[in-house]
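Sequence design from tokenized structure. All designs in this work follow the same two-part layout: the structure record, then the generated sequence. An example of the structure record is given first.
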């Protein structure tokens, strides 16, 4: 069960990570990307980031490759922006959450 402090730090990391993703210049990181879920370890040493794309799972997987190659830069930027004793090691995972929710929305619209 995450504590209040871990949950607050998780939200801070998510906010800063979203900002960093906008300034990355990797051509694989394109389109509308969203962080679906972020799991931060209680000692802040490890962080799993679930990334989804509106264009589909293939685009999200390409973005994950780009984010993985930029993980060192991202880690350094997070360390500079947030005052943390330990900067987490990031693991990026592709997720199709946005695509799935858009499909559910289309199905519900068709039911009307």
């Amino acid at each position: 069960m995450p504590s209040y402090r871990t949950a607050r730090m998780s939200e801070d990391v998510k906010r800063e990570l979203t900002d960093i993703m906008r300034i990355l210049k990797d051509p694989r990181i394109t389109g509308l990307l969203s962080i679906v879920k972020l799991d931060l370890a209680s000692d802040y040493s490890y962080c799993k980031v679930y990334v989804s794309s509106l264009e589909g799972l293939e685009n999200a997987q390409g973005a994950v490759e780009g984010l993985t190659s930029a993980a060192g830069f991202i880690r350094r930027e997070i360390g500079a922006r947030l005052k943390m004793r330990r900067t987490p090691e990031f693991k990026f995972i592709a997720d199709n959450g946005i695509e799935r929710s858009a499909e559910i929305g289309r199905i519900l619209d068709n039911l009307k």
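Residues 4-23 form the longest helix (20 residues). We note this feature because it recurs in several other targets discussed in the main text.
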